[in-house]
Amino acid sequence: MTPQEVVERALALPGADDRVVIVDEDTTANLRFAGNTLTTNGVARGSRLTVVSIAGSGTGVVSRSGVTPDQIADVVGAADRAARDAQPSEDARPLVAGEAAADWDRPAEETSIAVFRDLAPALGEAFAAAEAGGRRLYGFAEHLVNSVFVGTSTGLRRRHDQPTGRLELNAKSPDMTRSAWVGAATRDFTDVDIAALDATLAQRLEWAKRRIDLAPGRYETLLPPGAVADLMIYLYWSAGARDAFDGRTVFSKPGGGTRVGEELAKLPIDLSSDPGRAGIECGGFTVAHASSRESSVFDNGFSLGPTKWIADGKLANLIQTRHSAEVTGLAETPAIDNLIMEGPAGGRSLEEMIAATERGLLLTCLWYIREVDPQTLLLTGLTRDGVYLVENGEVTGEVNNFRFNESPVDLLGRVTEVGAASQTLPREWNDYFTRTIMPPLRVPDFNMSTVSQAN
Amino acid sequence: MRQIDPDFLALPLRRLADAALQRARELGAEFAAFRLERVRAETLRLFDARLEGSSDADDLGFAVRVVKNGTWGFAGGITLTPEAAAEVAAQAVQVAEVSAPLNREPVELAAEPVHEGVWVSLYDVDPFDVPLRDKVALLGDWSAGLLAKGVDHVSASLMQVKEQKFYADSAGTVTTQQRVRVHPSLTAMKSEGAAFDDMRTLAPPVGRGYEYLTGTGWDFPAELAELPDLLAEKLAAPSVKAGSYDLVIDPSNLWLTIHESIGHATELDRALGYEAAYAGTSFATFDQLHELTYGSPIMNVTGDRTADHGLATVGWDDEGVQGQRFDIVRDGTLVGYQLDRRMALLKGLGRSNGCAFADSPGHTPIQRMANVSLQPAEGGPSTEELIAGVDDGVYILGDKSWSIDMQRYNFQFTGQRFYKIENGRLAGQLRDVAYQATTTDFWRSMDAVGGPQTYVLGGAFNCGKGQPGQVAPVSHGTPAARFRGVKILNTVQEGGK
């Protein structure tokens, strides 16, 4: 049975007032390596049927994997029973109406181990080159394709095929005391240049041969795009309108309401999402497998467009469902699966920013980022795989790692330079979020709270 | 003892395994393992006593893992027919063949006796047999009780998992297992002027059934009755003065410190560099086995996959190795690591201690954490006696924020509640507290371990590791313990305010 046929059969069964049916077809392939050799690998396939049944304003959600045609009625029946048993759902709204999209009938897209046909030999060559050059390569390559099909009893039929690829390369010296990292987000691996990435790693390990110990403190710091992505993704995940309205987040206004409209950054910074942004394209409609603070099953199929979360330095929107938008009185702006940060036109490259730095730290990436205080969105975490000292416009050596304590919201107000934005792979959050375009940032006083002995 | 659900046993487990293992052998695999599993998870979330969302999802499928010419190959499938199982086995062999040019380290596995058996975890009431409306009503009643006592908002959640696994390998091991776990949690929130704060229940996730919510293993009504007043006191509490303090740490907080600074640091795959690019390595390198002074002489830590109600407790692991209990730190010295079969043989450690786990049929088993626990002192002190030995310190309960570096040296933790200790007595709550230390400094500063009466099994459902990312449930038992001269931060000052 095709996914489309599963959707139609589940919708056609009697029993509920309304129904949303979601079918996810997933294929994955991965290679993992350590110390210049392969460690694990695999391919896998998944298929999941999610049925949202609505009885009155009660909802029941049941999701099952590997459902055979004769089991569809069981899944639908379980969702119908759950809906009849449920309390009224606070987020209940009329389902999104529509019709079958033009591409509805296309089959699901897939990936396989063959996606690495060029990457695998290039990695083999990189392992050999690393071995000869006194480096050890570690890392991971993964390709996933998710095809999602959404149908509603109000006639809407939408589908989206989302390829997601990522490559992480980590080089270490044989004694493991020097370490460097690069990552790449890709849709199909055809744009990944292993040799160029390996050359960057080799340069960074060379930088690290001169070691400089620095004490904790506040330092002028250049955050590369990947590190900025990790901080801004956390800010984005914390930007739920309902929690802000209920007085629980950094975006809550003391005394009630939200901080939408308030200035967060002195520089004209934009933080936005756009399903159609070239290179980081993502689904153009809401897919919600369950309701939560930031998503509603009633919004399945809701069209998504370019959305500014921060515009010219001011908080512009928060993540909303249609229900929470009514509660807060703000625009309907559901979550979107990419994130873009941009500053004023003409921003410099990271290399140009380094050249313009008298003395400061250049980070590679941030790690183990966790929230310490929701009131300020204070985050803690570590620097990882290369903190470099920049003096008089040049990298002069590698510095010890630090634990930082910083709020990305507070940091926005202190940024003194926003560089040119480019597509980047976040380090910490790339298991969940890979589609970002971010600039490098200059922060005059980044809080390095303590020294980490980790290499 | 409960039985494995008939509908799982009715699946064509052996027929699929036979087809897969036979095809793998025909294609020249030196070793092959077949694993079929069904993981069902139900989650409920309430806000202010109203159901906000629920989901009931399962993950059913199977996996074949082979070693062909010394290289791993893995493939997963979802079609439960012998033909599909054989095809997935062929894919696994193909993956091994494609990957072979990248492999410079032939895979060999430590020997393990052949096992055949059935194992079911300890629980009384299958949470999936309890109607959704009853669960919502119970959480709703608890939430309403908190709202009636003056908190602004209450979020409540209940996660329930049933995990069923069938495993068969080319050596002849055949095992079938079923385990159940639950995690109820309520968080009360309150604001006071421009400040707001919250407080969560300390009840840990456990390897029990629905009986955990109705009086077995935890007294929820008693804990909830105290929560509003405790939260009000916390909101009005003074901000901590940063500095060096003696700490008494409750099991509800210390389990997470054990998890991060001992559990992950003593995973041999990390110590050997296999996780170097992601989860990280470990300061506890292999050359320091039997040499490293991990902590003070009163520190004894075990790994245990047999503990009653432990979240990492199993009959056999996902490489067919029997669950075991083993020493990790003895009298303060590192004496053992957590192993899988490859690591055990690679380092000449003999038999694996059974720490291989895959979180789903689509993922390959990797070395995951046993229930790593700090042992109590026989006849040791109560928590009150530990506190009585502190002149100027902080007593910490409940976990909250956690972060540790990629070699498990430098960590920073917060908590749910912090009490000032003055001259051996509690002197009211404090706010804005985090403790920060280096792992070995911290454990070497431990000068007293509580007795068995203070021992509690904490834990988490969602320990992350590996690429592709996998989550594993794990428990950590610990008594209360006392630490001297630990750095306390003021989190507001850290934020530059």
TrEMBL record, chain A:
Phylogenetic placement of the source organism: Bacteria, Bacillati, Actinomycetota, Actinomycetes, Streptosporangiales
GO biological process, one term: proteolysis
Organism (species): Herbidospora galbida
MF terms (GO), sorted A to Z: metallopeptidase activity
UniProt name for this protein: TldD/PmbA family protein
InterPro entries with a match to the protein in the record: Metalloprtase-TldD/E_C, TldD/PmbA_N, TldD/PmbA_sf
All copies of domain Metalloprotease TldD/E C-terminal, residue ranges: 216-449
From TrEMBL, chain B:
SUPFAM superfamilies reported for this sequence: Putative modulator of DNA gyrase, PmbA/TldD (SSF111283)
Domain Metalloprotease TldD/E C-terminal: from-to ranges: 243-488
InterPro entries: Metalloprtase-TldD/E_C, Metalloprtase-TldD/E_N, Peptidase_U62_metallo, TldD/PmbA_N, TldD/PmbA_sf
Any one GO molecular function term: metallopeptidase activity
Pfam families registered for this protein in UniProt: PmbA_TldD_1st, PmbA_TldD_3rd
Any one cellular-component term (Gene Ontology): cytosol
Domain Metalloprotease TldD/E N-terminal: 33-96
The keyword ATP-binding appears for this protein: no
Name of the molecule in the record: TldD/PmbA family protein
Organism name: Herbidospora galbida
